[in-house]
Amino acid sequence: MRGLVYTRYELLRTFRNRRFYLFSFGFPLVFFWLLAAPQHNKIISHTGLTYAAYYMVSLASFGTMASMIATGARIAGERQVGWTRQLRISPLSVRAYFRAKVLTGYAMAILSLLLLYISGALLGVSLPAGRWLAMTGLIAVGLLPFAGLGVFIGHLVNTDSVGPLMGGLISILAFLGGTWFPITSGFLHSFGQFLPSWWLVQARNVALDGQGWDARGWVTVAAWTAIFAAGAAWAYRRDTGRV
Amino acid sequence: MTSPAPVQAEGGIRLEGLTKTFSGPQGPIHAVRGIDLSIAAGETAAMLGPNGAGKSTTIDMMLGLAKPDSGTVSVFGRPPHDAVNDGLVGAMLQTGQLIRDLSVRELVTMMAGLYPDPMGVDDALALTGLKDITGQRTQKLSGGQTQRVRLAVAIVCNPDLLILDEPTVALDVEGRREFWSIMRDFASRGKTVLFATHYLEEADANADRVILMAHGRIVADGPTTEIKARVGRRTLRATLPGVDPAKLAELPGVASADRHGDAVILTCSDSDQTIRALLERYPEAKDIEIVGAGLEAAFLELTGEPDIDESAVVVQ
User: What is the pTM for the complete model shown?
Assistant: First the structure.
């Protein structure tokens, strides 16, 4: 009950702060239209997907990933002004606090995803309802590691470094994950498959054949979720002196 | 921490054998070196001392924000964490601003929503004089308004114990006056209040009791008047040729008198009485100057050693 009140205002605050709109909404939308619109019905080689379908999911991955990591910037900001300490002397439980942060990240991500889906549909991406849902589900699961990553960096770094760190992480993870162009062979291909962003982008395969990840995808996402969740717990304890 | 205690709002606050040491770049910092203290329910107590005296660390331990190395804290018969969860404690920490992108009312409503038995949001806003700015965004408030919103956040849970850690440091004279008048209003509802301050005047005007801290210890503890007499000395300087210092020492409120050439220097326990008597008997006295002796001097007297951070000690 109490956690709900907190979550409600957390959402309100987040959507009022337009600073995060750029990475979560603006950037992915602009690049989607720039990259996909000129030849939206053409098939990208090696993928079997049209430009519209490929970049719809790629840039949705970018936007949703940015939405989740932006949690880190919000936490770092609250730590800097001493608000985290104020919350710690309230009955709000640590669990409810984290839940609100993660839910807020997902709310941003869902909005980002919807904007890209609508843009994709406008450029001719047409899927059976079941595949839209399956793709959305896969992206939601693929975002779990980034939920942990957001909380982790939020309690690890200060507000001065959180911006560059977020920007750098998002850029590298998006590039190696195959957001900008298909990575089909070589070192980048082998290496990329160990990254959580790779599997987020791979959710696009649902559009092609209705198939999601293979076992390797699920294991990779689960492993990164565990790693970042442990990192988040460690950083929180270190930050607050709680053991 | 301690074993579960019966749920009752009596017993006030008890600190026993509290110590806390931090590791610093130049070795360990003994922030709190053994504090025993009890504050009765309904009391308004001031913790007075310079920076580094251990006030904030003690407060952190009372709130459960820091874990004592040894000793126990009991707030109305329970450990700090339980007291916080039961909504018995509200606090304004020393450092802290507000989170942005909410209105004053929204922020206070959000905080009220976290507690089991809060006071009405309107009550909290009225009590803290925020009625006219409930719709303002928190990032657009003045310093005085921000502190009053922080106070509203601290009291909206309707706590039995209110803790304020140097709440008026950044405020101007008018802001201070407003702030303390709100605090006294709240205290008059039978609440227990503990505040930390650098300023003797604030302790004097707003507390029944002063707990004087230095070097992580309590060096004096008593009714405000008593502490004031011990630390509240002022120096009166005047140009007054040809008067025997021994006669000046007999003036009311004078602790000692001294002469340097034409200038006389009187150390006063009550400079108000002294100045009245001085001007009555020696109307020719001129260039009169009264300054607070400073807490440094008082600390030196009480602890026998100079304090770490003298610059931070001010008697208004």
Answer: 0.82
